[in-house]
Specification:
The protein is mostly helical. Helices cover 66% and strands 8% of the residues. The radius of gyration is 34 Å and the shape is elongated.
Length: 130
């Protein structure tokens, strides 16, 4: 009996085998096909549940997410009300974690001067958010 064998790279080869071994191979192929058919027919594959890289829905509270986004939008609008120098100062201190002392040294002013600039900027943001 001749059995057709498919390699991983997609090439085919026909091999001469004993009749009893050939019957066993044909039976195994039939059982594999039936099992695969039964599984795909009755169950949903995990690939079908995949949504944008996450297998299942996020456990996060949608209402909390909406509130968080609204707060971020308000904060961005408040930041737009600042002068460019104040925005730069906020960015360097809070987003780049630079120290007030280092910024003062770089600009050639006292630490207290930078602290006062920061206070004015934060007060402006607080007024905008009220």
């Amino acid at each position: 009996m001749r059995v057709r064998y498919e390699f991983v790279n997609g090439e085919f080869e026909e091999i001469e085998v004993d009749d009893s071994l050939g019957a066993l191979l044909v039976d195994c192929d039939r059982q594999e096909y039936n099992n695969n058919h039964k599984e795909t027919r009755r169950h949903v594959s995990l690939e079908g549940m995949d949504y944008e890289g996450a297998l299942f829905a996020s456990p996060a509270d949608p209402a909390a997410e909406v509130l968080k986004r609204e707060e971020l939008a308000r904060l961005l609008r408040a930041m737009e009300a600042l002068s460019p120098d104040q925005r730069e100062l906020i960015r360097r201190i809070y987003f780049e974690n630079q120290r007030i002392v280092d910024i003062a040294r770089e600009q050639g002013v006292t630490k207290q001067s930078i602290h006062e600039r920061l206070s004015r900027a934060l007060n402006k943001i607080k007024k905008f958010l009220e």
